[in-house]
Amino acid sequence: MVSGATRRIELPASGVLPLTDGVVSFVHVISGAVRGHPPLASGCTLGVDRLTRAISVSQPAAPDLLSAGGALLTLGDRSVILDASQGATLVVGELRLSDPTALHMVPGFVVVNDFAALEPAAAALAAQLGLDPFTTDDVRSGDPVICRMMATTVLLSVIRAWAEIGCVPDEWAARSHDPFLDRVIAAIHQAPGREWTVESLAGVGAMSRSVFAERFRSVIGRSPASYVVGVRMDAAKSMLAAGSTVSETARELGYSSDEGFSRAFRRHSGMTPSAWRAQRVVVAA
Fold it and tell me: Which CATH class is domain 179-284?
């Protein structure tokens, strides 16, 4: 899933650490505490603007301080700078995903203050990363692969902890407690741009068309087609916010024309993709 490297960083008192732009990074605080720019309190909980339907990340009640045991994840779509007034020990992983769209439902900035409590095994694993930089002489066979697996585990655990404390949007891989429907939902989120039909989705769920359509609506509360469109529109907002053009977004999400995509986006959000992106830029500024 990922490639990249992890490192352990000792920040002195008043030390500053800018995270690399354009790179998915996770940070686990081993000791001490850090503040963030933008403020860490802007992370964690999703909010939806009722006018624009734009998804934003905010939790005003959260302290703007990430202490030992905390973790944060940034997708690299904004500049993030950490500072430690009293010093801190951090593990920083910089990762490159083989499939960047895999995290399209995750906001660009996630903070989990109680990561060590929520995910003790993953936190203990993270604490071991970056301890001994490899040299040509001491690399054992398979070490880089094991380190990538460890980093992947930590990354997924941060996302799981974030999800389990109630920070997820409505469309986040809803769990139905039905293994066949969960398989369908996972497939939709993994490939929102695929030409999904009721027949193809029923095939993923190993059901007949009629049984699948009735079960999906009964359990999820909406039709399969409506769910697919919702996932696509959330993915579209993430792509547009990250700088993709309307045409690039339309093609990535399976629309044959910009006009068809724009009509679907307008029905879902109340405005055209270009107007939504322009308004988001104004708000961000």
Answer: mainly alpha
